[in-house]
Structure formats: C-alpha cells, structure tokens
Amino acid sequence: MLQNRILAVENLFAGYGETEILHDINIEVAGHEIVSIIGPNGAGKSTVMKAILGILNINRGSIFLESKQITGVKPSDVVKLGVGYVPQTDNVFVSLTVQENLEMGAWTLRSGLEKKFDEMYTLFPDLSDKRFQAAGQLSGGQRQMVAMAKALMLDAKILLLDEPTAGLSPKFRHEIFSTIQRINESGMPILMVEQNAKQALQISHRGYVLVDGSNRHTGTGTGLSSDPEVARMFLGSRGSV
Amino acid sequence: MWESFGFEFINFYFIPGLVLGCIYALGAIGITLTFGILRFANFSHGEIMMTSSYLTWEFIMIFTSLGILAHPLIGAIPASICAILLALFVDRFFYKPFRNAPTIMIVIASFGMMLIIRSMVQVIWGPNQLTFVKGIAKPNEYIRDLTASFDFMLLIPNKHFSILIGTVLIMLLFNYLLSSTKIGKGMRAVSDNPDLAKVSGIDVENIIKATWIVGGFCAAAAGVFLAMDTQFIESTMGFRMLLPMFAAAILGGIGRPFGAVAGGLIIGLAEELSAYPWFGDGPVISPGYKSGVAFSIMVLMLIIKPSGLFKGKVF
C-alpha cells in the first residue's frame, strides 16, 4: 500500500447493468501524485472514473477515499466528500457565466465563496477577465479550465480528469498539461485518463496501462513511456495514440 | 387616425391580447421549467391553474362569510400556497417514483394526474360553471379621463390593469430569482445539463422542489388572472389553456423561461389580433378558431425552427 494514500480502487469489478467492463482493477493515488490511466479505446479507462464517482454498478471490490469506503455512494455525495470530477465532454454549464459555473461547483460551500473565486482566478488567470461571459462562448481550452476550476471549488481532496485534452489543438493541449502540473504543485493529487499517452506520462509520477478492462502494466511515468512493450502497444512510432 | 383605427384596435384587440398573453406567459413558465429540469411535458399543469382559481373562489367565500369583502387577489394568496403544496405533493407521490424511468411513463402519469385533479375539483365544487366575479367590468375612469385629455382614450378595466401590473411584478421577481439567487442559478444549471449538475454536487432534488414551487406559484397566478378576466370558473378551463401554453413554451424555446414569456405574449396577441378586421369588415379569422392560431404557430415553429426563438432544447 502506498504511503499517504488518498484514493484506492481495490479488486474492482464493475459495468453498465449486466455488462461487466472492469475486471479486477487496482489503482492507487498518493497525496502528491499525478497518476495517469492510459490504454487503447474501449479499455475501460473512463469507466474507472465513473465507477469511482458512483455512476455505475459495482459488482465486487471497493473504493476508498483516504480511509473512507465510498463504494456505492451516490455521485453528489462522492463530490461532497472531496472528489472533484471533470467529465470528458459537456463539462461546463454553457448558458451560465464563468463565475456562475464556479459558484455551481461550490454548491455545498457555506462561506468564503469570494476567497475561492480569487484563488481560482489566480490559478487560471485567463478566466479572470472572462468571469461574466457565458461559458458556452469560450474556446475549448478555456472551457476545460472552467471545468477544472469548477471541480476545485469545493476543497477537493483529489481531482479526477477524464481526457482533459481530448479534441484540443496541440497548443492548448500543452497549456492544459502545464496547468495540470501547476494544480498538482499546489498540493492537489490528480488522477487522469488520457488518450495522448506520451505527453500524459511525461508529467505523471505514475501510470497504469489498462487493456480490456484489466490492469496490464504499472510503473512510473518515465518508466512506462520508455517501456518497449507499452511503446509498441500504445505510444506508436509517432509518439502518440 | 386614433378615432378610425387606433381606438378600436388598441382597446378591443391589443390590450385583451396582451392580457391573454400574460396569462399564457405565466402558465408557460411552469411548463418550460418542468420540461427543462425534469424533461417531461406536464399535462397536469393546467389543472394546477384551474384548482387555484377554485381555491381562490373558496377563500373569497370564506372571507365573505366572515364579513370581510375580499378582492380575488387577497383570496389568491392562500390559494397559491395550497397550489404549491398540491404541486409538491403530486411530484413526491406520483412523479418522483418515475424519475429514472423512460420519459413516456411520467408523461402518462401527468396525463392521469390531470384527470384525477379535474375529477376531484368536480367532486368538491360540482361540474358546472361558477361565477368568479359578478357584474360588468367597467373601464378604469381615471385612466379613461386622463388618456382622453390627450385624445388617446384607453378603456382598461381594473381587472386588466391588475393582471398587467401583477404579471410585470411576477416577472421582475422571477428574473431576480433566476439571475441573482443560488437556487435560481442552480435551476438554470440543472436545466442546462442535469448529468453535470449531479457530478458537481448540486442537490438536484432540492432544485426540483424549487421548480415546483416557482411553477406552481406562476400557475396559480395564471389561474386567478384567467378567472378574473373571464369572471367565471369551470373545471375544463385549465385544459383549454394547455395547448396555447405548450405552444408558447415551444415558440420561446423549451427550457428558456423568458422565451416562454415572449412566446406567451406572442400567442396571446396573435389569437386576439387574428380576429381583427384587417381586410374588409369581418374578422380575418373567426374568433371561434382562436385556438387554431396558437396551434398553427406551434406547428410552424416545430417545422421551421424546433429550438424556438431563444435556442431551447430539441428532444
């Protein structure tokens, strides 16, 4: 077991209704880490996220947030317990302003809303002068920042990112990855699912490779990206999947 | 100009159209909110309207028997509270069990609820029309004399004046709720993206309750305003309003409350103005076909621009 463990998925079997997608998944995230889950399409990467959030059926296994079991807890409560989640698509309220989006992320926050706004605008300076603009009018990269800021509003213990760079241009992709590093350096553990495996592993402390809903490889970010088998399977000759 | 055209047009077509439009607008707010937040077409919405007008009538009777001469708007206060409680009760016991079921089930449930509520009203108050306000509504003398001195005579009965002012006040309150309160912003968020709302930690069940409270209140206001306007109440009055209210919600864009308001005003005006003798002496469209006008607008809108005037949802 990792020291200072924040999130743990242990021997998880889960899926949608009758269909089991995840078989015996084990994942751990420690307090200071960026951890990436990579793997081919249909490997069940996003499904792991949804299982942690309590969106789908868990057949066996358990999920812990720090020492607390959160297996089978409903999504809104998982969020309240300190799991910030950024879905892959449709992750902002398009008709609400940037600031209203942040406010929605802080639904259960009793006080100190203004202080939180300031924190987020410091962390995401691009959003500061867009705060009264509708989130739907922002570019893809900026929306992604709104979504992350929204997820961080509730003093999250860990941030879950589902393909944060999907559909973004290389320039924005780079920006998002450096933002993720910045968030992590401020003390936030991050678990992310990524298609851009090479770049994701470069900034990750550790990574998990999933194939067909099972753990295939585990290792450090640099270790995995230099592993010949992983490179052959997922990273491809051009360096990205 | 005013003598030959304006006087008749404004007083006998435009103002009544505006009043009808206000009533549709208030009703359509509830329909579009339930559609946006709970994702179903609520057929029982008109019955909440109708029930609240009966309750208002009952409260006026109670006040009168106590020797207090009460205006319908006074009776409307306790009646709207009862209407809100009814909406919350219906949701808790008849819609909540279907929350995760296919939409068609909850639509059918609301259709059943429509029949149940109407039958209950008929059991309690009887199936016949009741007189809501007696007498002929005379134009407000002050407004008439004031405007006449500018050669611009307006004949607005007090009841129409109350309905117009009341609607404007409710709209201002509603705008404040949606743009400046946490619960209002939450309602917009859930309407925008319910799945994201759940994983953002928003308490969706509380938002749903707030939706019924707001929708129920607006329906109660619409019901009482309609009864004040027509001066009688009957158990089918809610159902008669349902189609134009749906048309208003669709015209404005599903899930867009201010679209519903605009839609309501347009439908109300279109219905009244279609009876104006634009060409020749007779009405362009016989007043008997008024509801056909609302229906035509709805169908045209669905064909040309299904998302409505204000970019609502398309299902």
Low-confidence stretches of chain A: 237-241
N→C terminal distance of chain A: 31 Å
CATH fold-level assignment of chain B: ABC transporter involved in vitamin B12 uptake, BtuC
Shape of chain B: globular
- How many domains of chain B, as an integer? 1
Q: List SSEs of chain A in N-to-C order.
A: EEEHEEHEHHHHEHEHEEHH
Structure class of chain B: mainly alpha
Sketch the major β-sheet of chain B. 2 strands, antiparallel
| Gyration radius of chain B, rounded | 20 Å
Give a nutshell description of this structure.
Chain A has 241 residues and is of the alpha/beta class. Chain A has ten helices and ten strands. Chain A has helices at 45-53, 75-81, 98-105, 113-123, 125-128, 140-152, 170-185, 197-203, 221-226, 228-235; strands spanning 5-16, 19-30, 34-38, 57-65, 68-69, 83-86, 158-162, 190-193, 206-211, 214-220.
Tell me what you see in this structure.
- The complex is a heterodimer of chains A (241) and B (315).
- Chain A is an alpha/beta fold and 241 residues long.
- Chain A has a domain at 5-88 and 155-235: Rossmann fold.
- Helices cover 37% and strands 27% of the residues of chain A.
- Chain A contains ten helices and ten strands.
- Chain A has helices at 45-53, 75-81, 98-105, 113-123, 125-128, 140-152, 170-185, 197-203, 221-226, 228-235; strands at 5-16, 19-30, 34-38, 57-65, 68-69, 83-86, 158-162, 190-193, 206-211, 214-220.
- In chain A, the strands form two sheets. In chain A, strands 6-7-8-3-9-10 form a six-stranded mixed beta sheet, sandwiched between helices. In chain A, strands 2-1-4-5 form a four-stranded antiparallel beta sheet, covered by helices on one side.
- In chain A, β7 (158-162), α7 (170-185) and β8 form a beta-alpha-beta unit.
- In chain A, α6 runs parallel beside α7.
- The two termini of chain A are 31 Å apart.
- Residues 237-241 of chain A have low confidence and may be disordered.
- Chain B has 315 residues and is mainly α.
- Chain B has a single domain, classed as ABC transporter involved in vitamin B12 uptake, BtuC (Orthogonal Bundle), CATH 1.10.3470.
- Chain B has helices spanning 2-38, 45-65, 72-95, 103-125, 141-148, 158-180, 182-192, 194-199, 204-230, 237-252, 257-273, 290-304; strands at residues 130-131, 232-233.
- In chain B, strands 1-2 form a two-stranded antiparallel sheet.
- The longest helix of chain B is centred in the N-terminal third of the chain and has 37 residues, at 2-38.
- The radius of gyration of chain B is 20 Å and the shape is globular.
- Chain B starts with a helix and ends in an 11-residue tail after the last helix.
- The interface between A and B is medium-sized, with 24 and 17 residues.
